[in-house]
Design brief:
Number of domains: 1
Helix content: 40-55%
Order of helices and strands: HHEE
Radius of gyration: 16 Å
Number of helices: 2
Strand order of the largest sheet: 1-2
Structural class: alpha+beta
Oligomer: single chain
Largest sheet: 2 strands, antiparallel
Strand content: 5-15%
Length: about 70
């Protein structure tokens, strides 16, 4: 099976959506806060990679992620 960078990025976009929509178990207090922080971190990580543009440069897969503030692009 050949590697397809577009499929990789699609999987990360799907994971971001799953992380964002993940239901929280019936946990309260600090446990719930930690689960919410982890859900937000997972969403951010997956969404950033899912939004990347890719290129192969000198044999390396390069993911470019725009880190400029909105409106600065």
């Amino acid at each position: 099976m050949a590697f397809d960078p577009d499929e990789l990025l699609t999987r990360f976009r799907d994971r971001a959506a799953a992380a964002r929509d993940r239901a929280l178990p019936p946990v309260t207090g600090e446990g719930r806060k930690e689960l919410m922080r982890q859900r937000e971190t997972d969403y951010t990580d997956f969404a950033m990679i899912g939004a990347a543009e890719w290129a192969v440069e000198e044999g390396f897969l390069v993911l470019r992620i725009d880190m400029r503030p909105p409106g600065d692009s």
